[in-house]
Amino acid sequence: MSNTDIEIVVEDPTAPEADSPEMASVRVVDVVVSLLLLALALTLGFDNWRTGAGWESTGPQPGYFPFYLSIILGGASLYGLVAAFLSRREASESFVTQAQLRRVLAVFVPTVLFCLATQFLGLYVASFLLISCFMCLVGKIAWWKSLLTAFVFTAAMFVTFDIAFDVIMPKGPLEAALGR
Amino acid sequence: MEALGLLMHGFAVLLTWKTLLLMMTGLVLGIFVGVLPGLGGPNGVAILLPLTFTMDPTSAIVMLSCIYWGALFGGAITSILFNIPGEAWSVATTFDGYPMAQQGRAAEALTAAFTSSFIGSLVAVMLITFLAPMISSFALRFGPPEFFAVYLLTFCSFVGLGREAKHKTVISMSLGLLLAGIGMDTVSGQLRMTFGSAELLRGVNFLVAVIGLFGISEILLTMEERLALRGHAAAISLRVVLSVWKDLPKYWVTLFRSSFIGCWLGITPGGAIAASFMGYNLAKRFSKDQDSFGKGRIEGVFAPETAAHASGTAALLPMLALGIPGSGTAAILLGGLMVWGLNPGPLLFVEHKDFVWGLIASMYLGNVVGLVLVLTTVPIFASVLRVPFAAVAPMIVVSCAIGAYAIQNAMFDIWLMLGFGVVGYVFKKIGIPLAPFTLALVLGNRAEDAFRLSMIGAGGDLKVFWSNGLVGSITTLAIVLLFWPVIDKAFGSVTRMVRPAKA
């Protein structure tokens, strides 16, 4: 028919190995999440009970709905807790392997650092740092390509949001020095 | 035929160079988002939402809905050329689409996919055009009790009809409703669940949660996968397009059946995913030559794509007519409406005629423009996948942060987004569905207000929810749906007990 024989091939050199050891099973995570939700339900339930969870002549008090919702949430997570303990099937499933976790953290840690940097340096400087460092260090892309991409992207964002659309982003010392 | 006149007016609103340009931009961005791994309809719309904050509502919704159409089209490209479904609802498209590409018929498969998406959306848009005004004028008679009953119906049908484990749906929904309640109580003005924090006073913003849940978590999930891919490149020539279109009438039964399934599942919270599989399976079951499915049969592309798009579009019907979103993306669009100061619900058709009919007209126009755009630019978008993920991932993170901050100009929201990212990642991996959470978060306050207003009106008497035929039947239906699995099981065992007795 048409020229469909041209292939697109993209390699992924840092892909997680398939035989990497398991870090946590679905069952363990299920239990932990259920416990956390239960704790949350208890906290919120108590707070709402303090606000007033009764029924007045004109209907429910402000805390009424959230109070009973916390009870529903607590009940459902308790059920989940029991179900996770009893289930045989989910025990064998892996939640995350070591190699997968390494890759996930390779994105997550820079993202946290980016949020921190945004707080102190402003969003534009932080995004320049994030993109250039991530491409260069995690993606193993040539440093000049990384810097160029980061600069073009950040500049484009600045022009779009700050100049064209007037959406104000957190700014830091650099923008102050440049008088924006 | 008042609808037609208003629709024409809608087209007149749209046909300016500025709107058409916005439309093209939205479609291109949408296809881009649909093609990239780890992003899709809801994420794309959520991330790009802040771009529209400074526009007028009509331009904004036109651009956003075009992003949505674009993402729907984009999902088909990767499933056919790379055997990677960009979206869950494109999974069924890979069954026959990828074998076709392997046989060198990629152009044919892509044309089939785009054309059937177009047909599916068109059917659904026509349904919206004629049904939405009727439903909304009917809903104008609704008071708070009726509205609460409809909200209750939505929540209950999620729990009763969802495919996930019931307690996980309940967890997701109650968590969403609880988070929606944080902040100032709108009826009494009292503070709830803020724990003395000034940041929590504003409440948890729906869009911030969505950006974290869908954007950030999706990047984390994508990184776990092996990102290497091999695929076919394809250019579509006019000759192929015409030959596929010439054969279209042969498949009218499949197209019609899939459109119907899609519309039905789109309005009820079944979703595009279920629709695409059902469309595919039914096409296979009714075919004379069942074995040829899965080996590159063009009908196997038509059926799921038509159903997925019909359902994705039909999901906007309850959002426009009643203010209840039928899908995750519709929920985000609903969140957008509130940001622009529009109150979703039946009054929208009365108070903001220009806006509603502009939106409906943009669905027609966006689909036509989108079809032409994808047919001509497939090679460019297929090569987008060559861009390494290491370059794409940080850019997505930055866009997410910009989006989260822009909504309320709060640094706290960026941290909240990060938190929701982790929550979304964990929830998706242990099978807690995110759709009920999103829905509960966006509808929570409205549902509670409706309940309490009806209580104030009725002097705290719960019987108000059965005070007339309409509200009574909706409430009863909601409760039946909530316990549907139990009722279904009971019916099953009763018939089983009866049948052997007969035999």
From TrEMBL, chain A:
It comes from Bradyrhizobium australiense. The keyword Membrane applies. Keywords: Membrane, Transmembrane, Transmembrane helix. This is Tripartite tricarboxylate transporter TctB family protein. Residues 32-170 form the DUF1468 domain. It holds the Pfam family TctB. InterPro entries: DUF1468. The keyword Transit peptide does not apply. It comes from the Bacteria. The chain crosses the membrane at residues 28-46, 66-86, 107-131, 143-165.
UniProtKB/TrEMBL annotation, chain B:
This is Tripartite tricarboxylate transporter permease. Keywords: Membrane, Transmembrane, Transmembrane helix. It comes from Bradyrhizobium australiense. InterPro entries: DUF112_TM. The chain crosses the membrane at residues 20-40, 60-82, 109-135, 147-163, 200-220, 251-278, 319-343, 355-375, 387-408, 414-443, 464-487. Residues 20-438 form the DUF112 domain.
